[in-house]
Structure prediction request, 400 residues.
Amino acid sequence: MKTLYVINHSHTDIGYTARQEEIEMYHVDFIKQAIDIIEDELLHHEKSPFVWTCENYWQVENFMKHASESYKEKFKQYLELGNIDMSLNYLNMTELVDEQVLNHTLKRGQKFVEQMNRQINSAMTADINGFSWSYCSALLNNGVQNLFTCIHAHHGLYPLYKNQMPFWWEDQTGRKLLVWNGEHYHFGNELYIMPDAQSSYQIQDEYNGDVSTPQLEVAHKRINRYFSDLEKRGYPYDFAPVMISGFISDNAGPNEKILESIDNWNELYGDQINIQMVGLNSFFEIVRNQYSDQIPTYSGDWNDWWADGVGSTPAATKIYRDAQRKYHLAELLADNESENDNRFKEAEQNMMLYAEHTWGYSSSVSAPWNTMVNELEYRKSGYATQASQKINSFVDDDCR
Prediction:
């Protein structure tokens, strides 16, 4: 029997589908919705098969800032039970990110999970083609032992020209990060597992545009073909992981209907391919416990080919880069006192939000006259100018 592991999450684009400040609250509400689903399941069953993975610590950080004490306690409870899982990556970043700022934000996630009665040591990224070699070290320095990547290959290639494969990513000091180089982050939806959330962005077959064939009939064809294709290319495992969202969109919330869909599948076809919801950290426990001695090792940069946005706003990027230089100057002149200054922390946060991978509203190419295109662009540029303002204020007042 084969197993299809389904990792249920919401891809974070700070912008693209709505204003940045709305996106922040969307993800707070998504975690609340996931908690409600789990709580309802536990009221009727001893255990809940529903598992929600928070794609990054930014989601969790905002949740802990805005949620009620009751929701915060339930979050921690379900995190320890394994019904909620989380990634220790802070956001999906471009190569603009500053090393020290990145380390400071990654450390916040590690500090949060240290209080949990469960080992959480994994990170994931989505929509990112690659990373500098130093990103491996930054993750390892902050308690991350595993990285799941969901590359969007629209403007790039998978490393080693393959996906659905693990490898050890060795840093400059010889330490190793376990990477699972996976499918696109909506690929689970393309397999027609999630009710009312199907699409055919990558899979091209006879069901493209078909809205009349029953969902599980399409799922049966596509999932079996998928495992068959993996076998033909020499895939050595009896399982495959896929990411899935509640509907076909970035910043998509949870959908409890997936439980019924998985139950129906397993009743009909589970003796051949069993579908199981799993969290990010739980998935890596499976890989490490059973397959770690079979995984090859590689080192070096993992090139990011399509961070187009960085070049589309040169004026704001110039301001951002100047803020980076002032940031390091301030650290030298302030003799380590900068870390306790709120302006310094706010500058760091704005630098992270500017370097995050989202550039522009979804219609920025097809309908650039859309007011939302302008709103998101000005807000994005605002992160750079706010970082500059905060760090210049600190330098002017404290570093003379």
The longest helix spans residues 371-398. The chain has two domains: 2-299, 308-398.
